[in-house]
Structures are given as structure tokens and as C-alpha cells.
């Protein structure tokens, strides 16, 4: 029995030694750590020039801006635009003289103190910067005598360039005050898809939306149909297309808006209407 026990034990030991060790279980592959996701890139907003290009409109020329000159002309434009009701008589007489290139006179004998103060100050500013080549005011007669420079850029500024500049600067200041990302393009000369040449007074990009302003200091009747057609080329709605008419009566402006599919405003209320459009409260 004893010998049989040892034989059995030996057999069991042999079997244990011959049985291969159990292979370690393969570990399932560990998933790669997720790559840190960066913040999504901000969508690039098209510039005004890129927006025009997308419409098939080529920018042929942009105004060359000289910083010091721009500051002076903007200051003059803001003075005239902000005080236009008291400067209207002076401005109309000054503008009439540009076609004759002669000296003009303006009697202020029946003018208010505000009209006299603003008129004489504005003429003094124009003379300081040589936009007037001569200027005299006789206080005992309350009469202005002055002559405008015949230089081309002076004539352009006084006939209407100042209003274009006024609108652009007031819009720019308003958008800055609201911290709204924006671009203001002034006086772009463009070629339309049909080849026609055109100057766009003021284009304003706010975020991804674009607004267009045309300005007129005088006869607009011959141009308003052209502006209504250009609005379609630009792909803008009536509320995105502004026609700023100097001294225009609000009631008549409203009627013109309805007739021609543009937002017709004047120099005093265009900013208020623009703000309403931006905020989505415009009718």
C-alpha cells in the first residue's frame, strides 16, 4: 500500500509540472486619452470690400486719408452738422457762391444771437484753414463778406463732402459708444457688375450686417431712382439703405421713404433712426 501511495503521489507531481502555467489574461486596450479640444475658432467676418466683391462689385479706388487733414475736415463737418439750423442761411449762401467763384455777402441784421455767433465762428474756422480766402464781418452792419477757395478739394468738401463725413463720424462715434464691432468705409469708388462706375458715400458693417448711407445737400430728385436701383444691386432692404437729405422735413421724408423704398432721413434724425434699425424696433 505504501509503495502504491508513493507511486500515485509521484504521478500527480509529474502532471502538475507538465501542465503549462496559465497565460496572464490580456488586458483590454486602454482608450487613448481624449485630445483636449481647443476653443472653437471665431468666424471671420467679411470686410466691406470682401462683401462688395461677393456681390460682383469691384472697388476701384479708396480715398487716401491724411491724418491731420482728416481731423481738421471732420471737426469742421461736425461743427456745421451739429449746428446746421443756425448755419443754414450762411451755408446756402456759401454754396451758391461756389458756382460763381466770387465773393458773397450775408446780412445777419435779423438773425438771432445764436445764428450770429455760430456763423462768425464757422467763417473764422474756415478762414483759419484757408477754405475761405477772405472773410470780414462788420459788427455795426451785422454783415458777412467772404470768398471761398477755388481748390478742388475745398469745393468738394463744401458742396457736399462735409455731410458724407458728418454721417460717417456720427455713426462711428455711436458704434464705439456701444462697443459694437464695426467698419466704416467712406467714398469707395466702385465698378458695378454691369460695368457702371459709382461712388458709395458711406458703408457701415456692424457684425455681419451692412448698412448703406447716401448723402445729398441739394437736388436729390434726379438721383433717388438710381439709389433705389442700387439698393437692389447691393442686396439690401429699405431699412438698411439710408438717404440723408440736408434740411429735409420729417413728414416729407417719410413719404419719400414709402414711395422709393429707401429710408429717407435728415441730418438731425438719421442717427436715431439707424439706432432703431439696429435694435430691431424700426417700423
UniProtKB/TrEMBL annotation:
Annotated stretches, region: Disordered: 19-42
GO molecular function, a single term: nucleic acid binding
Superkingdom per UniProt: Bacteria
Gene3D superfamilies (UniProt xref): 3.40.1350.10
Name of protein: DUF1887 family protein
Organism: Thermus tengchongensis
Amino acid at each position: 500500500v505504501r509503495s502504491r501511495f508513493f507511486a500515485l503521489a509521484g504521478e500527480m507531481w509529474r502532471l502538475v509540472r507538465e501542465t503549462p502555467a496559465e497565460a496572464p489574461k490580456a488586458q483590454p486596450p486602454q482608450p487613448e486619452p481624449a485630445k483636449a479640444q481647443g476653443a472653437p475658432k471665431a468666424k471671420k467676418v467679411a470686410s466691406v470690400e470682401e462683401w462688395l466683391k461677393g456681390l460682383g462689385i469691384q472697388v476701384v479706388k479708396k480715398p487716401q486719408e491724411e491724418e491731420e487733414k482728416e481731423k481738421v475736415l471732420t471737426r469742421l463737418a461736425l461743427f456745421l452738422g451739429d449746428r446746421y439750423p443756425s448755419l443754414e442761411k450762411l451755408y446756402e449762401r456759401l454754396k451758391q457762391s461756389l458756382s460763381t467763384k466770387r465773393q458773397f455777402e450775408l446780412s445777419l441784421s435779423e438773425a438771432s444771437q445764436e445764428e450770429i455767433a455760430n456763423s462768425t465762428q464757422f467763417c473764422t474756422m474756415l478762414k483759419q484753414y484757408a477754405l475761405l480766402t477772405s472773410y470780414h464781418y462788420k459788427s455795426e452792419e451785422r454783415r458777412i463778406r467772404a470768398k471761398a477757395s477755388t481748390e478742388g478739394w475745398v469745393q468738394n468738401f463744401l458742396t457736399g463732402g462735409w455731410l458724407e463725413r458728418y454721417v460717417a463720424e456720427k455713426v462711428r462715434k455711436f458704434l464705439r459708444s456701444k462697443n459694437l464691432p464695426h467698419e466704416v468705409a467712406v467714398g469707395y469708388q466702385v465698378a458695378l457688375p454691369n460695368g457702371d462706375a459709382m461712388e458709395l458715400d458711406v458703408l457701415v458693417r456692424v457684425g455681419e450686417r451692412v448698412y448703406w448711407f447716401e448723402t445729398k445737400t441739394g437736388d436729390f430728385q434726379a438721383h433717388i431712382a438710381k439709389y433705389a436701383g442700387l439698393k437692389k444691386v447691393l442686396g439690401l432692404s429699405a431699412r438698411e439703405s439710408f438717404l440723408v437729405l440736408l434740411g429735409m422735413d420729417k413728414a416729407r421724408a417719410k413719404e419719400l421713404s414709402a414711395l422709393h423704398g429707401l429710408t429717407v432721413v435728415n441730418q438731425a434724425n438719421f442717427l436715431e433712426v439707424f439706432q432703431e434699425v439696429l435694435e430691431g424696433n424700426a417700423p
